[in-house]
Amino acid sequence: MSLESQLNAIDVEERVQLYQSSREHDNNLRRLSLLKVIKTKLEAYDMELLRFFQLSALSVPRAQNINSFRRWMETVKPLIQEESIFLQLTDDLVSPYRNDEAGFLEEGIEQLVRKTGIGRRFLQTNIERQKTSDPNLHYYSAHRQALLARVLHTIAASLLLVTPILLLYVVKSQKERLIIVAIYIIVFAITVAVFTRARRHEIFALTAA
């Protein structure tokens, strides 16, 4: 019988109305004992519920990170096949690390280095190289990766600003100038949306500026 059913049964059998209407004056030992059990279980439930929401608040791992971990699992095979299916349930995975500035460019850099090996020595310090001797596992410096992405962002932003100025200087037609301005506004907005993690209102603000 469930705890709720047991409590209902005790309440039905109760002959003293005061015991049912007041927790302070309740002297029904059976009810008091059962309420202690219920309280203990509710506290455990509350802790699990709080833990669930805390985990839910963590950031979702990038698909690239999940794929990298999946490839490592397939190569090293630390678990049997039946126990490694959790990687297929990507909605249940969370990441304790969150980088709000990392965007498409950072992911592209990591993919390029992984597939071609170009720039690997720059992205790895001696600390990263000493972390593992596994030829299939590579660590990269988050600082150097962010630095390279920042430089590329700066170059791209400068080109997006300088190029239309030069074109407007060369082109004399008023109609063609308006077309150039419109095209570069659209290109700038798309670049911000794709290569950064700017929010919608930030994209609107940057485009308007």
Description:
With 209 residues, the chain is mainly alpha-helical. It is built from ten helices and no strands. Helix 1 runs antiparallel to helix 3 and helix 9 packs antiparallel against helix 10 (200-208). It starts with a helix and ends with a helix.
Our Rg estimate from Cα atoms comes to 30 Å
**Count of runs of 4 or more consecutive helical residues:** 10
Name the helicity range.
55-70%
Uncertain runs are: none
Provide mean pLDDT, rounded: 78
The biggest sheet, with number of strands, parallel, antiparallel or mixed sense and barrel status, is: none
Q: What would the principal axes of the Cα set say about the shape? A: elongated
Structural class by secondary-structure content: mainly alpha
Assembly classification: single chain
Distance between the termini: 67 Å
* Sequence of secondary-structure elements: HHHHHHHHHH
Tell me the total number of β-strands.
0
Strand content: under 5%
Describe the protein's topology.
Blueprint (H helix, E strand, L loop, with lengths): L2 H11 L3 H5 L7 H28 L6 H14 L27 H13 L3 H4 L2 H5 L11 H29 L3 H22 L4 H9 L1
Helix pairs in contact: 1-3, 5-8, 8-9, 9-10
Can you describe this structure in just a few lines?
The protein is an all-alpha fold. It is 67% helix and 0% strand.
Characteristic terms for this protein:
209 residues; 10 helices; elongated
